[in-house]
């Protein structure tokens, strides 16, 4: 029995060694080196194909050479000579003083003076009418001042005082209208003359609200309306 165990042990050892030997042979077979490349393969591998980046660089170098050739062939522009003081004339030699500038006439310094023609016949008639209107307003203002000093009611005196302010505004409007006509600013003259009629009408409205109507003030208001209307019509005539 002991001999059988000893024999079995020896068989297992030999089997194990045999297995190791086969494993080592299999490993050495896998690591067999590949055959060395032939000379033809080495020559083909030694000539690498040019990379795309290198081709682009070569094309850019060619373009740069062409640009340089074009720049060299292009003619260089000749500089324009700057004007000297002698070419600018005598005015450029010495600047004018302030007094000399003031002595120059307007056309000589490049400013054209606005020349207005004579007033039309209609504008002249309007001016005469406005002068007459101003004279009448001053007279009527004196009349209302006398009434204000008399035995009038407080409400009546209030209207008379307001009319004094309205008449002052109307006188200013007449003067502005004459000035606008003389400047031939007919659009502004129309506004000024219309404003005169409005000032007198405001005075009349105060009496209408107070006592229905004041005959003296109402008559003067009607006269102003008529004469200012004629004045505006005359402005339209040549």
Automatic annotation (TrEMBL):
Annotated InterPro entries: Invertase/methylesterase_inhib, Pectinesterase_inhib_dom
Gene3D superfamilies: Invertase/pectin methylesterase inhibitor family protein
Record field: transmembrane: none
Keyword hit for Signal: yes
Entry keyword set: Signal
Compositionally biased spans, kind Acidic residues: 53-73
Region annotation (Disordered) ranges: 26-96
Record GO terms (molecular function): enzyme inhibitor activity
A Pfam cross-reference name: PMEI
Residues of the Pectinesterase inhibitor domain: 143-231
The keyword Signal appears for this protein: yes
Signal peptide: 1-26
Protein name: Pectinesterase inhibitor domain-containing protein
Organism of derivation: Tagetes erecta (African marigold)
Lineage: Eukaryota, Viridiplantae, Streptophyta, Embryophyta, Tracheophyta
